[in-house]
Input
Amino acid sequence: MATTSDIRNGLCIRFNHDLYKVIEFLHVKPGKGNAFVRSKLKSLTTGKVLDNTFPAGSKIDDIRVENRDYQYLYKDDTGLHFMNTETFEQINLPPASVDNDDLLQEGAVVDILFDAEEELPLTVDLPQYITMEITYTEPGIKGDTATNTLKPATVETGAEIRVPLFCDIGDKIKISTANRTYMERVKE
Output
């Protein structure tokens, strides 16, 4: 058991018969009244975000989790298939357990968060940035660089990303997996 003073970003807790990960928190000590901790919790089972306020000093039920490296193999009708990079054991997860699953490239190494007590996979975290090749985009208009205009582009996994007008088919680009945004062109 932990207390509210142990709350930090990334802490996984059991709350209201579900597992949650702390996304944001703020210790508040008003001039009048008792202190409290305002937090944003993301459900590890449904993905919903919950705003909650804990009174200062209250007990929270933290859970022990482990991060393990898995390699993405393929996707089929049964789900997404991953292989442990150390034991070569394979697991199958539903596509809903991965944010931005259309950015997964075969062979990519991802970080899977496991509940260490029950050996259940909780979430799949993609690398912060990935590099992909543009397979289709409309040609940019020459000389139209005065504004920060974006156009849709399809990358090799079939995902659609908004890119600047100067990007063409065959360009390799760096993409942020957190918000699916173009970062830069990658020079070979």
In short: The CA atoms of residues 21 and 128 lie 18 Å apart.
